[in-house]
Amino acid sequence: MKETTGSHPEGIPLDTRGMVAGVMAAIRREWPGVGLWVVTVLGFGGLALQRERISLALPILGFFAALMAGYLGSAWVPVDSVRRWMGADVRRIYGIPFALWFGGGLLRILRGDALDPGGLLLSLAVFLIPTTMVLHNRAARKFMDGWIVAGVLAFLLIPGPPPSDPVGWAFRIGAALWPFPFILGWPSNIRERSHLLFFGAVLFMWYAVEFQRLPKDPLIAGGPSYYQLAIITLFLWLLILAGRFPDLGFTFRWTWRDVGVVVLNLAGFAAFALPFGLLTGFIAPAASLPGLPEALIRWLAIYLFIGLPEEILFRGTLHVHLQRVLGWPPLRTLMLSSLLFGLAHLNNPPKVGLYVIMATVAGFFYGRTYLQTGKVTAAAMVHALVDWIWSVFFH
């Protein structure tokens, strides 16, 4: 893992100096993302100052700003320099999950909450296990890789309170079973490019959030918990480590063509969703509308904490991984990833069947946006607008 980079006469490593210069150049280039970070910190920071005592609001705002910088700041990091910097010393790689875990414990102390040893160990495992899997990932599937993936998924899925209804049981059992074709094996030409440990790490982080295996420590009202933001940040950094980050198109620099693609795919989904939803009773017009400030902060929260993370997972990561492994045409892979996206909403009662249909069709248009623009941020815009219109104008 060690590499010689040379050093500056003042003792600053050349790779560090190059990374800093690359970050500054990318910040100038990715100014829309910087602006989004500023707006987000100010907007949710205002909520923190309103709803928390000042002695606690300022540290919370610091945690929030730092995590959002790790999240949105992924758009302006020089990926190649960061990979070289992390690869030069394995302690840098493991320093990231340990720092995120330590921050969560420190936040609990500042809030005066009791430290739960079991919860702390679980949260540390949720950060360390996928990091280790990505670090030791290889293209060709080995026999032991399947046991590792099955074991870490069982670590999340088996413990915890049992589901209260048959749909919940079906969702948990389905989550355990659908990866098994990858684990048990495919034809030899697919096994050679399966990247099974990477696939398992992605599923592990997804399931940790989906099955609520992370502590629910609040951060800012109206936003995600500390650990939800931390897992997004870790996910993006692991994509950088795995060399998968460029696949995302994680950029906020859009062209007018990108805007047109967003509008057309939003209109395409609306042409299906509105008549289908109204005729089946899945949606109905809202009795009242929120005020403009609330509507705007709601859109920001939906885009950053629902739309963009889910698109990073389903389109930018799972879709691309399935495309590489299966070697299918893009449309066929899009149909599969859209179905998986729909089935991921099986735990959204009531009217689960209708929800799955709507989510599957929505996933097709989100994925279509991603394929047409190459930008996960554009797919997230369609996703966020769909959810925002639903939350504001319908119920």
Low-confidence stretches: 1-12
- Would you tell me the overall average pLDDT? 88
Helix content: over 70%
Number of helical segments with 4 or more residues: 17
String of helices and strands: HHHHHHHHHHHHHHHHH
Descriptive account of the structure:
- This protein has helices at 14-29, 31-51, 54-72, 79-87, 90-111, 117-135, 143-157, 166-177, 180-184, 188-191, 196-210, 226-242, 256-280, 292-326, 330-343, 352-373, 376-393.
- It starts with 13 loop residues before the first helix and ends with a helix.
- The chain has a domain at 254-395.
- The model is unreliable at 1-12 (pLDDT under 50).
- Helix 11 packs antiparallel against helix 12 (226-242) and helix 13 runs antiparallel to helix 16.
- The chain has 395 residues and is mostly helical.
Distinctive features:
disordered N terminus; 395 residues; 0% strand; mainly alpha; globular
Give a summary of the structure in a few sentences.
The protein is mostly helical and 395 residues long. Helices cover 73% and strands 0% of the residues.
Question: How do the strands and helices of this protein lay out in sequence?
Answer:
Layout: H1 14-29, H2 31-51, H3 54-72, H4 79-87, H5 90-111, H6 117-135, H7 143-157, H8 166-177, H9 180-184, H10 188-191, H11 196-210, H12 226-242, H13 256-280, H14 292-326, H15 330-343, H16 352-373, H17 376-393
Helix pairs in contact: 1-2, 1-4, 2-3, 3-5, 3-12, 5-6, 5-12, 6-11, 6-12, 7-11, 11-12, 13-16, 13-17, 14-15, 14-17, 15-16, 16-17
